[in-house]
Amino acid sequence: MKGLLWFLFLLFLDVAIPYGVLSDYGRITGAFIFWTVWGAIAVASIFFMTRRWGEER
Amino acid sequence: MRFWVIFAIFLYLFVGTILAFVAKRGKSMSDLEEFFLARRTLGGVLSALTYSATTYSAFMMIGLAGLTYTGGVGSLGFELTYLAGLVLIVWFGPKFWEFGKRYGVISPAEMLGRIYGSERVAFAFALVCIIFLVPYSAVQLMGIGYSLDVMSKGVIPFSLGIVIAATVAIVWSFTGGMRSVAWTDAFQAGLMFISSLVALLFIVYKGFGGFGEFFGILESNYSQYLCVPGPGFFKLSTFLGLTVPWFFFSISNPQVSQRLFVPRSLKSLRNMLWGFLIFGFFYTIIVILWGFAARALIPSLDRPDLATPTLLSLPIVPPFIAILVMIGVVSAAISTIDSVLLTLSSMVSKDLFGKLPEDKQILIGKLSLFLLTGAVLIFAYMRPSMIVLLSVSSSAGLLSLVPAIIGAFYWKRSSERGAFWSIVLGAFITGVLFAFKINPMGLMPGIWSIIISSGIFVLFSLIFPLKRRERLKDGALREEGLGYTRGGLSGPDKG
After folding, report:
1. B218 touches chain A (CB under 8 A)
2. How far, CA to CA in Å, does B340 sit from each of A25, B36, B389, B416?
3. Which of residues 25-54 of A touch B (CB under 8 A)?
4. Taking the domains of chain B in order of start, what are their residue ranges?
5. Is B42 helix (H, G, I), strand (E, B) or coil?
């Protein structure tokens, strides 16, 4: 459940930040860097959530 | 140049064909599990590479680069949101994998049929996949035809190009089924990644003088492309309309969800997921930057899908880079087509003709591989307008499968009728919305697909509960499935 809530929060940021605070910020440090870091965090979260797969059996 | 184009294509085909035969060596292709799933014995790295090559098609270097060219940074958000959608595998991966192993199911359609205790659910699932994925494959084939025609300067014309590609797809998948497809996919994933990376580095350093200068030009001349909605394409409704269908891609598209049955262990399944995420993250960024480079170097194109071919034809790009990228694009397309065809043929043999003995099913599977390839080839050659429509709508159309998949594992009251009608009506209504270009309330058909099919699924499950006898039969199966997969394995918090 924690994982689901965390991803819902990430998906909220996914839309809210680029379409909100960064919508007029035409720099590479704006939406480009935001989504790159956001993607890395999402990937790292999936790594974390699946880190014990195969060890429990 | 022509000689080297043809030489490169033959070298690529030669290496791939050798791999297809080596992968098959010593294995008898006489049972379904071996032919379609490599007997569920693939390791994590190989699984990750076949998953990557299957997922990423010619859409990346042609379509996504073009989307970046037109719409700017929104395409990065769109593609990385898709990648984040792989979180669904956290909740569904182990369930698919264990159910497949325990009950010996071959296709995702068969799995759903077993869980709902209904052949017609499996049948409808398989049919919807065929209706949407055959045109999708045909468009991939057309991409190869155009690329080879342009790059070889007419030596390999469109019609010859698509025949070569279809022949390769069928030889590689027919030779050793999933084993051959997996090994050739691994080879092609390498080609896709390396070719796009080398080309990007070359363009950035040769065309701009380095990443600092590249970003500087983007900021000073194309700053509107660095934010959303930016130049206007990525309105919020468009962004959502594109990302929602793709977010569910990992469970809605059978050619990738079938790969959840293939790893040899849960650890291999995890490594497949990790490997794909790493591949996808970097590949996405490479392709987006490539699209930005096209925007800065060739700003006045009429058709965005010409961004990559036009960029490659610039004098600053040496021929070997252009040839490498062309092979990368062809690899991306063929690795998707042969995987889709293999998955669809497994559905034909198992879900449309599942009552036949296994040796007959194998025969039907192999025969359908030829027939489906023939259909894809004919569609690509004739290019009816309906193809493009069905191809574009494929990700939204396949969304109609999602509620039934989620309900199968996570909603005890879900019923067979809910599953069947949500698939049938959901896909049909999505097709109609696309065909007549209707966007009710300004929302794209992808959004409506998930809303409508979810609504039908819940409504029909509640209004038409199963009859007592059916409930026993169905409930027993579903309980077993749920009870087993709930066994402390796959909860998101437990990892």
Report:
1. yes
2. 41, 12, 18, 27
3. 25-28, 30-32, 35-36, 38-40, 42-43, 45-54
4. 2-384
5. strand
- Residue B438: both structure tokens together: 């209707």
List B residues 160-199 in contact with A (Cβ-Cβ < 8 A): none
| Interface residue of A4, A10, A35, A37 to substitute, partner B, most B CBs within 10 Å | A35
Q: Which two tokens stand for residue B380?
A: 């690509």
Instruction: Place B167 in a pLDDT band, splitting at 50, 70 and 90.
Output: very high
Residue B156 has pLDDT above 80, yes or no: yes
- In this prediction, residues B211-216 reach a mean pLDDT of 96
B231 touches chain A (CB under 8 A): no
From chain B, pick out residues whose CB is under 8 angstroms from the CB of A46.
84, 86-87, 89-90, 273, 277
In words, the CATH class of domain B2-384 is: mainly alpha
Q: Is the ipTM of this complex over 0.90?
A: yes
- pLDDT at position B494: 32
Q: How far apart are alpha carbons B101 and B96 in whole angstroms?
A: 8
Q: What are phi and psi of B160, to 5 degrees?
A: -70, -40
Give residue-wise pLDDT tens across range A26-42: 999 999 999 999 999 99
pLDDT single digits (tens) B369-384 = 999 999 999 988 987 7
